[in-house]
Each structure stands twice: as structure tokens, then as C-alpha cells.
Amino acid sequence: MRIGVLTAGGDCPGLNAVLRAIVRKGERHHGDMVLGFHDGYRGLIDNEATVLTIEQLRGTLPRGGTVLGTSRVNPYMLEDGVQRVLDTVDKNGLEGVIAIGGEGSLSCALELSKEGLPVVGVPKTIDNDIGATERTFGFDTAVAIATDAIDRLHTTAESHNRVMVVEVMGRHVGHIATWAGIAGGATITLIPEEPFDIVEVCGALTRRHERGRYASIVVVAEGAKPKPGTLDIPDDDFDEYGHIRLGGIANLVASAIEWRTGYETRVTILGHVQRGGTPTAFDRVLSTRFGIAAIDAVHAEAWGHMVALQSGSIVTVPLAEAVSTLKPVRADLWSVAQEFFA
Ligand code: F6P
Questions:
Q1: What domains are defined for the chain?
Q2: Model's pTM, two decimal places?
Q3: Of all atoms in ligand 1, which is nearest to the CA of residue 169?
């Protein structure tokens, strides 16, 4: 078969491992030709691609980022975008396309499948927020990076008797914050699912410091929101998929803490460090399993479906089901995190 593949949306560790697995099984087992489109949907719109071979992808398993490049370009934002995608598929004689992306890119894949594009999705995002899969690759790596950062912040916080506010990614859900907060021994964690009251946060920090602990770590997911009327935050900015561009809530939280408690407070925004570098062993294995399952799903003509991890097994689920709801932090895990607050 002639198959197209693209990586869309924010990059994440493990993308190259997925590509490597698709090409490995496609070429060796099925005798496929895999065409890799550049920069996500932009490559499909502009018909810009390279043939991917086993030889070319050697050495890419531990490499972060994506050898194909990625972008947040959305064909639905261009007047003739969808037609150009379908023309590219026709011109190249593609019998199937594998779209590796997060919620926005997979929603786009779903719409394109309704227009007749034979597409299979692979869920990717460090945020781990895609419904219908227990895990997305990249998440484990991001948690490991954030936990390492928190471990390092503990020692400097203790030396200076400071409050350290650490901002991690997670625009709608707080999986990274919750996991890294538990693993790193956070004093308090703030996540989008649980709007916070800054007065309560400061009260908890004060009680802790009055008990004789002079250092605290507050982990904040970038999408954490104060309860209405408790802390002013600036208006949101949006990307091509209508997603909020975030980053910076930690600065507001830190100033409020310093002002209300008088404790010296510093901010660390981990940002894209969480998305860079080599994937963990777990993410390499999950990416490889997803890649193998995706090429098999193409051969099974499971169009409009996405590969997913459920109860330890790789399954295929309808894209419509996968993108219908975001997966929030489980209540039982959140209550474990809360047990250690302040
Ligand atoms: O990949 C998802 C994500 O990491 C979000 O948590 C974050 O808000 C966003 O990407 C940042 O994207 P960009 O690289 O476009 O700034």
C-alpha cells in the first residue's frame, strides 16, 4: 500500500519512535511505501513530503521532536484547505493516511474522514488529556522532567526559606501537575479541574510555615483557574484550532502569595523543556506499540479510528469517541495528591 503519515500539533517525545515502528512494520511486513508529510497538515495541503525508509529512520528511537516537523496549521482555516488535502492524497495515490496528533489534530482527522479521507489516528500529547486512551506518549517523559525540576527546586527553596511556584503544561487538565506534584512532594498543586481560592492557598502555606517549615513548592498547571472573583487573570489568546495559548499563571499566583503571606517567592516556568529531549523507556515502548497498531489498523481499513491504550492492551476506537471529551484527572488520584497538601 501507499501510505501517508504526518505529525501535527505540539511536538512530543516519542513521535520518531511511532514513525520508526510504522515504517518498520509497513516496509518489512506489508511491503508498504510510506510518505512522510512535512509540518503536519501543512505538508498535506502543500503536497510536501519525503519517502520514509527503515534505513533513514535508524537512530531516531531515542530522539525527541519529530523528523517530519510539525505545525498547528489547520486545513479548515483555509478556504481551499480540505480540497488541497484530498488532491494531495489523490496525486500521490495514497490508500491511507496516519495522523499522529493531539485533540485538535485528531478532531481535524475526524472531519477529514467524513470528507472521505481514509485516515487512522495516533494520540499524542504530553498533556495526556485525550479521552478513550489511558495514556498518550510523551506524558511519562514530561512527568519525569517536571519531577526532576521539583526535586532540584526543593534544595534551593530550603536553603533560602522560600516558596517556589513551578508552572507545568496542561491547558485543560492537570495530569502532569498531579503526577509531578505527587512524585515531587509538592506542598500544594493547582489544576484546571479544581479552581483554586488564593486566600485558601495562602492560608495553607502560612499554617505550614508557622509549624516550622520554611520552604514550600506550589505546582501550578498552566490552565489552572482561580475561583471566580478571587484573582484577576488576563484575557485569553487563541491558536488556529481555537485553543487557548497559556503560560504565566504562576507569576500571578506567586505575586499573590508573596503579597498576602510576606514569604519570599520565586517562579519557575518549565514550558517547552517538558516537551524536549529523549523519551523515557515507557514512552518509547508505548510509541512503538502505537506505531505497529496504526499500520495494522490501516491494513484492516479501520478508517476514522484511533489506536488507544485500554487496560494495558492496544485497541482501536472511533475518532469521534476519542475526541468527544477530554480526560480529566481521576478523582481518586487527586485525593491522593490532596492528602499531602501543606
Ligand atoms: O502539547 C500540548 C501543549 O504542550 C500544551 O500543554 C501547551 O499549552 C501547548 O502545547 C503549548 O504549545 P505551543 O508549543 O504551540 O506553545
A1: 2-138+279-323 (3.40.50.450), 142-275 (3.40.50.460)
A2: 0.94
A3: 6
